[in-house]
Amino acid sequence: MKDSKTFAVLATDVAVLTIDGGVLKVLVTEARSKNFTGMLTLPGGLVGHKERTQEAAIRILKETMTKTDYYNEQLYTFDDPGRDPEGRVVTVAYMMLVPGDEAKRIIRKDASWQAVKTLPKLAYDHNEVVNVAMKRLMGKLTYTNIVYALMPLEFTLSDLQKTYETALELTLDKRNFIKKIKSLNLVHKTTHKVEGSAHRPATLYKFGERKYTRVDLF
Fold first, then answer.
1. pLDDT per residue as tens digits for the range 9-18
2. Closest CA to 68 of 94, 33, 39
3. For the chain, how many helices (H) and strands (E)?
4. What is the DSSP string of 143-179?
5. What 8-state DSSP symbol labels residue 123?
6. Where does the NrtR DNA-binding winged helix domain start and stop, copy by copy (predicted)?
7. Of 101, 75, 207, which is closest to residue 144 (Cα–Cα)?
8. Which helix (H) or strand (E) holds 188?
9. 16 neighbors 43 (Cβ within 8 angstroms)
């Protein structure tokens, strides 16, 4: 990384988020840099000369996951001159959202899902990247339908409420939540049901369209 002593090198890092087992998690791998031995890091790497930053992010994730066509968006450019002890590296960070039922699609041996609430100190400035991703997700959950990116194809309204509560770190009134969701016409009943342990079978719903749009939710 000789050039990084004089000129900045462009990289990309991705905060891949999911809600699995009622816990908000982020995908991490073992840091390969000798400066961060024994630490965890977000998936990331350098951007190729002929790549857009998003293309580089997807390429890097393909080394970690069997599927990468999930919702993703550019987060922020992290350019603190001291963020990488090996040289001057500017990173364009992305956020990707993965449904909980697809969280097992990781193939890299040193990759794992870590609970955001108990996340240890990560390499570089990656804790800050995760914090920015969290704030972005929490904000967009209140005025868009982005929650679809965290949900399986079919789900109960209770599952949907729990996803909101987990990501937003709050408790919602069940009756008001269901009323609001139905009034927005975001989800539609399917003919399928799921057996409950103590209650009658719950109806499964699906999104009318799994496409990002603004909604007046909260």
1. 999 999 999 9
2. 94
3. 4, 9
4. HB-GGGGGS-SSB-HHHHHHHHHHHHTS---HHHHHH
5. S
6. 148-207
7. 207
8. strand 187-194
9. yes
Dist CA 145 CA 207 (whole Å) = 9
Domains in the chain with CATH codes: 2-142 (3.90.79.10), 144-207 (1.10.10.10)
Is residue 7 very low, low, confident or very high in pLDDT (cuts 50, 70, 90)?
confident
Angle value at C-alpha 90, between 74 and 127, nearest 5 degrees: 65
In this structure, what token pair is assigned to residue 127? 């804790």
Dihedral sign for Cα atoms in the order 13, 73, 145, 129: positive
Task: Judge whether residue 6 has pLDDT over 80.
Answer: no
Task: Let me know: does 17 contact 52? Beta carbons within 8 Å.
Answer: no
Q: What is the dihedral of CA 83, 75, 140, 174, to 10 degrees?
A: -50
Written as one letter, the residue type at 164 is: Y
Task: Find where tokens 């000798």 sit.
Answer: 34
Residue 78 φ then ψ, to 5°: -100, 115
Report whether pLDDT(3) > 60.
no
Amino acid at 191: T
- The pTM (predicted TM-score) of the whole model is 0.94
